[in-house]
TrEMBL record:
It comes from the Bacteria. This is 6-phosphogluconolactonase, cycloisomerase 2 family. InterPro entries: Cycloisomerase_2, Lactonase_7-beta_prop, N2O_reductase_N, WD40/YVTN_repeat-like_dom_sf. Belongs to the cycloisomerase 2 family. Pfam families: Lactonase. Gene3D superfamilies: YVTN repeat-like/Quinoprotein amine dehydrogenase.
Length: 359
């Protein structure tokens, strides 16, 4: 139904307001060789936290799109639930379901085929950090998977990102408070075993992305770096490139080019984006650094890649920067979308979808 590898016909861009009274998804569309246009604000049926800061949830992956492009999922951190939407061919959304997240303060999501997993941050004391899984049916309805609710390493692990690998067998969760990475194994029925705990190469593991089934990239906000790991069969991690520094500030979020050759980290404190070259074996090196906005004002947070375009949400001004990525991974800024109708401070999450030929 959807052409998610060829974006010549345009894009749909989604972010959320995280408003405390009523969380909403903001949808923006671009037709090929045309300007971006606001579609609509869609109520999620839940509440955000309403925190007016650059990164209100302290996470990556608060909005994700299903592998086939049919559904969008979003956390409602203020009401402890998650919402699913059907995505139409024109990029508009239809609310499909709202379900409790299986914990307190859901902040990050990951999906594979008909499975969805959420990392819940907990309240730091009586309600523990955990991971919970859901089955997704053909209409976008969510059903919690028995045996999928698993605690992280400690009550107050403070997860920042949950990601699943390409074959859907391993899940990795970065824990800020413990400097650990928890790895779970996904069983045939979607239930989880684990976690197996490994030390982060550097302090403050945050954003994560899988390069292949076995190679994981994780940012480190404590020292502003990116590390790569091999996930072993038993769930342990072996470091490939340890803590490759970019000498920026607040390196938290990471996106991977579709060919897997380049990773892009958002450095909110430095208002920049770092390009890392990624070798086939997972080794990393910094190749370029660029400002998120023309004047260097934007503080980039969540990001997403579709085809040869990188999109970055600027958390301090509610704008979205758009870059073309050339064959060498270099970023060429093409536009900064300022009329997004997102809050100036407090928005979160970004997901991109290629639109079909006719819409």
């Amino acid at each position: 139904m959807y052409d998610i590898t060829n974006c010549r016909h345009g894009y749909a861009v989604y972010s959320m307001t995280n408003n405390a009274d009523e969380n909403e998804i903001i949808a923006i569309r671009q037709k090929f060789n045309d300007d971006f246009t606001f579609i609509k604000a869609y109520k999620t049926g839940g509440q955000g936290t309403g925190t007016p800061i650059v990164d209100p949830l302290g996470s990556q992956g608060s909005i994700v799109i299903s592998d086939d492009g049919h559904f969008l999922f979003v956390v409602n951190a203020g009401s402890n639930n998650i919402s699913s939407f059907k995505i139409t061919r024109s990029g508009t959304l239809i609310l499909a379901d709202v379900k409790p997240s299986g914990g307190f303060l859901p902040i990050s999501l990951t999906t594979h085929r008909n499975l969805l997993y959420v990392a819940n941050a907990g309240n730091g004391s009586s309600i523990a950090s955990n991971v919970t899984g859901f089955h997704i049916d053909e209409n976008g309805m969510l059903t919690e998977i028995i045996g999928s609710a698993k605690p992280l390493s400690t009550v107050n692990a403070k997860p920042a990102c949950i990601v699943i690998n390409y074959n859907g067998k391993k899940i990795a969760v970065s824990e800020q408070n413990t400097n650990l990475i928890s790895v779970f194994t996904v069983q045939q029925d979607g239930s989880l075993t684990g976690p197996i705990l490994s030390n982060s190469s550097g302090p403050g593991p945050f954003g994560s992305v899988f390069l292949t089934n076995d190679i994981l990239l994780v940012t480190e906000v404590g020292i502003n770096a990116l590390s790569s790991y091999k996930i072993n069969h038993d769930g342990t991690l072996s470091v490939i490139s340890p803590s490759v520094l970019n000498f920026q500030s607040a390196t938290c979020w990471v996106s991977l080019s579709e060919n897997g050759r380049f990773a892009y980290t958002s450095n909110a404190g430095g208002h920049t984006i770092t390009t890392y070259e990624v070798e086939r074996n997972g080794r990393l090196k910094v190749t370029n650094i660029t400002y998120s906005t023309n004047d260097g004002s934007g503080a980039p947070i969540d990001s997403g890649i579709c085809s040869n375009n990188l999109y970055v949400l600027n958390g301090n001004e509610g704008s979205i920067s758009v870059f073309f990525t050339d064959r060498n991974g270099r970023l060429i800024r093409t536009e900064v979308i300022r009329d997004t109708q997102l809050p100036y401070l407090g928005s979160q999450g970004l997901a991109i979808l290629c639109l079909p030929k006719r819409y």
